[in-house]
Fold this protein.
Amino acid sequence: MSSRNVLLQVARRGGSFLSLIKKLWQHPKGRVGLILVGLLVVVAVLAPVLAPYDPYDVTQRAEKGLRPSLEHPLGTTITTGQDIFSMLIYGTRVSLLIGITTGVAIAFLGALMGVMAGYIGGFVDNLIMRIVDVLLVIPTLPLIIVLTGLLGRSYFVIVLVFVLFGWTGLARVIRSLVLVLKNSNYVKAAELAGASRWYIMMKHILPGTSHLIIMNTTLTCAGIMVAEAGLSFLGLGDPTAISWGKMLAEAQGGGALLFGAWWWILAPGAGIFLAVFSFMRIGIVMEEIFNPRMKASSSIYKLFKHLNNDYLDEVFRSMDDEESADPPDGLHPAMSEGGHD
Amino acid sequence: MTDTVLEVRNLKVAFPAPGGVIRAVEGIDLTTSKGECVALVGESGCGKSVTALSIMKLLRTPPSVSRIDKLQLDGRDLTGLTERDMEHVRGKDMAMIFQDAMTALNPVMTVGKQIDEVYRRHVKLGRKEARKRSVRALELVGVPEARSRADSYPHELSGGMRQRVLIALAFACMPKLIIADEPTTSLDVTIQAQVLDVLRSMQKDHDVSALLITHDLSVVANMADTVYVMYSGKIVERAAALELFTAPRHPYTQGLLASVPKLSDDKQAFVQIPDTVPHPMHKPEGCYFHPRCSHTTDRCRQHMPRLETLEKDRQIRCWHPLHQERAT
Amino acid sequence: MKKSYVIKRILYAVFIFFVVLTLNFFIPRIGVSDPAERYYPPQGAMSEIEYEIIKQYTREQYGFDVSTFQQYIRYLQDLAHFDLGTSLQAGSPKVTELIGQRLPWTLVLSVTTLLISLSIGLLFGTFAAWKRGRWQDTMLLNASTISVALPAFFIALMLSFYLGFELELFPAYTNPNMVGQFDWSWEAIQVVFNNAALPIMSMALGGIVGYSQTTRNSVIAVTNEDFVITARAKGLSHTTVLYKHVLRNAMLPLSTSIGMSISGLIGGAIIIERVFNWQGMGTLFLEANSTSDYPLMMGIMLFLSAFAILANLVTELFYVILDPRVTVGDRR
């Protein structure tokens, strides 16, 4: 199937956001993803309620370096005596917040740029693509390191750089799709009817890209969360916030490895894994939903494994000609020899 | 018939899918003789291409499943052959011309090399010898400046030229059977005529048996000796070409012929066979054509007609075959 | 026709480089009117006058005493001589010198990781494509999802813990004397690879899975193309079809991926180097950051960008060799 057809399939408008959620729910893997994401959101929002201790509260510190126990399911940090389990819960906030805000911001910027580049074409297209080329060669991690030095360590700087550099991927993909959509009949009809460029872009082209945007954004969120973990690990995020990446840095720096406190490393790592994995799951399932041809070839194999030989024989037998009594019209019975029995 | 080249008996192909089975080919027979051009005609989706691929044993078992009673090429039984054995048959004794020459050729290999491959594989020629033969093959199909053209890449050639390359590829080792799957469908009309000429002369000059798969009746009229009409996986009529065009007996064939626009003085409305081809997974009860046929009776709705053989080489699958006056 | 394409791409690369280096020039000047304050931030115990004198000295030393435009010209002139600036470190070493010292160490990690990931990835990927739909293929898909969700530095920490501290198979921290004591002797080389083992493993795990998945997708996409059926219809042997037709075409999108990996080769190891305290470009950059050594930082950034541009250019030109269909003005 040509890539053009693939893009068109994805663009086909099929139902609203709610129906998308419903479809995700029906898909077994999608359901898992949705549950996980839902869980994470709940944990992030209700962190103060769910966490046994408030890691920000200095008075709630316990003895340093405690091993996991009933009071402290994941023990306490060697450096400060904070409850690791609570930190784990609070860390959800940073990851989800950064991941989702960045993802949404990139969705807006990337889609806008992609639609403009694809639809308006010409100089605008050229300009945008050149900018993309420049942005792509600048190493983002060193840049963030420099900027946090210049502008202060904060998640705002991180999100800013992510968005300023991250829209390129989505823009390119959207642009390809728009180039195809541009030539579709309903767009041409609108142009002939005299609709303004902006109107066409907003009302016709953009909705056609909605599926692609949602799918891409979900996967982007996942990627951002990984990147944020790395940056927090390097200490570039808000020094007062609790994030999983920072927990890992503290763990290593605080001697978790030396003292064998492997749970201090495993916990935030598991958190990162869960968050990223659940978003990725949803993104991949979305791709399957929007793009049925991409359905895992494993389903064909499973189908074959479970094929009943008898069933197949039955199918093939049904293809044989019947042994009927009377010949067709106008044919002498002696003449007909018939096909196979 | 001692000069039978291809014999296919009771070929059945199915594609299991979620929700059912796609019944692509439902028990068809085909024969071709030396030097004969046999056409397999039908609309898209009737199973023609699947038939072609099955004869070459190119279908893979997932996703398809097939059964066949007999598959013989020039007396040699192909059914028991392993894949490795088949590799020595394909390209050498039996070859295929595909529909879209642009996608059918390897884009990163020169066309010369792609023909060389065949010679080096089947005739065990060295590089230089193979190139000589390839150039000759290109000349035979009418490619000008064959020697330099051999070093071109497929995208550098025109559509008609590419199709000629495919023909050269197929005829390279002078196989006994050529299967041409819609060889001219992707070409402009003027180029079509040229390519068909090449195909016909190659076939006739070298006494090669051809199985021509197409939905284009004008191509059939031009080239075929015998015609099989296929509908939804089944053969519904078989006749000599002239017979078929002048006195079709199956309503579907009649409909096909009628829907070809004719140049004439009286302006006629476009004739169309109503409705569309049945979905390969949900076929109707009884005769597959009955929903679109104007002569349907209860019998047609309940029972699938058998394929009856009439006078020599005439076959028909219909409860109410048409009786036509011989038209000129 | 091809030649003008090549020239076009080279000119374009130069243009991009120009834009990047201009950005590079202006970035440290963000937010301050007087760059000298950046290089020498105000210290508490100094009086106003003392600070002014020091700033003036800094300005002269680093050429901020002239207008910004003149600074830019000098910047360009320096670059023409491959001078990326002077570091603020003790002894004022040239940036290029420092990069020269540390770059090879980063390359040891990156290049080895790339080679391992590529070779194993290509094998696994083709295998998974062959076993399309079966459990081996599904396993790869699952591995891919999991691999993305497990950041390399986390794997690094876990490896560091289990293989380093618990099992003591490899050093969990790089031996700080390794660089100084290196003398090209066989023992020294062994020490290097002993220390490099864990960092490389951390990065290679993700790399192998990534390349496997890309290869697998590419091979499957190609196998579904018509010309593969033609090749089989010609009766070519299974191996010929695989190598000359399938893989040869699957390499095309793959080489683009490889190109992208190469451009991120140097900067990508920063976090891993930090985990293991490996003395490469990454740690150099982080050190520069902690001492606000802007000349060094921006010099490294420019170097990384230039490297990325060069890598992209080479990949594009290589692609032209691989794919005869590419002509002037082609955008993939």
